[in-house]
Amino acid sequence: MLIDAPTLRHTAHLLTVDADWLVAQTEWLARSVDDLNATGFQGEAAEAAVSRLHALAQPMAVPPEQMLRVAQVLSMTAGLQAELDAAVHRAVALADRVAEDTPLVTLLLRDLRTLGDVLDWTCARQIDLLCTPIPVEAPTRLSDTPDLDLAAVHELNMLSTPVTGHGDLQILEAADARMVVAVGDLESAQSVTTMVAGVGSSDPAGLPVHLDRARTVAAATGGAAVVWLGYPAPESVPHALAQEPARAAGAELQAFQRELARRFPHQRRIVVGHSYGSVVAGTAASRGGGLYADDLVLIGSPGAGVTHAGQLTLLGDHPRIHAMTNPSDPIGLTVTQGAGVHGPDPTSPGFGARVWPGDSSGNHGTYWEDPEFLARLRDLTDQKKPMASSE
């Protein structure tokens, strides 16, 4: 719950008064110790005692300094909160004058309140930094801000990683070579599809393509979609032979899905791993603790980091593994039914996944344009709907 501007100013005033009192007491104590010599307290032992008393009193100067800094933070926050309060007041007055319920005014009020949440969180974090000797790292993962709703998380990430021209997305995580964004109303959606991208996905120039795919998936499933670029992806196909990026990324994906499950325990969760992203998703599901997903879909996969689907642990009511590779997808040249750098072909009969037939005219990048693929994703979002008989 936000604290109003007058309360913040009053608290800052009290801290300043108490800090001044502590400073006065510290100075009085120092003078009293110095005055011991005038009482006849002389000699080597007396000097050692006076020196020791000064050393013991020295830490008393730290709390007043911290209190004054905290008071400055509170005063600054109070000024910003007052401006937000005034903006909310003007927006409410505008809403009262509008005869109809205008969505624009509703969105404005929501955004202003969200900024208030961000201001509250930022103030608290700054106070922690002033009062905690251990450095506090800036939040880079969704789990780093468990008390903030997604709108506030988005505004906080926009401060450091602004993404313009895409008003329908929320930034959930942002850091160097990492970006996780949601399309659709993630907080109210019945299902969420996390899309794990592959080679070259860390290039910011490719973000619009990933967002368009997410919009397509969100529209097809009727839920939310997450573009998960939460790792430094291999830059090229030769670099994708390495397994270490998938191991590191698997831990990150596992943590992200766990936080989604904590925030929205009743959502249906689908993870789609494309290309090297399927290696990442498979690695996450084969790690200790498993992957919070009801369904794992491996498309255009060079392998899932395991030899059999039974080695993948999904944390869902009725977990299922699905695989699909278009016949014309060149990724098929890198993997066989029996072996591959990242394991056997997930569409091979011996792997144990539910195999979806690929598009005969499709290639490595056209899965998101395939109506049959999108329809099958839609099927996964409805637990009561039977799977197509071709499976």
UniProtKB/TrEMBL annotation:
Q: Which Pfam families match?
A: Abhydrolase_8
DUF1023 domain segment(s) = 177-332
- From the UniProt annotation, give the residues forming the signal peptide: none
**Matching InterPro entries:** AB_hydrolase_fold, DUF1023
Q: Which domain of life is it from?
A: Bacteria
The UniProt entry, under SUPFAM superfamilies, shows:
alpha/beta-Hydrolases (SSF53474)
Please report the name of this protein according to its UniProt entry.
DUF1023 domain-containing protein
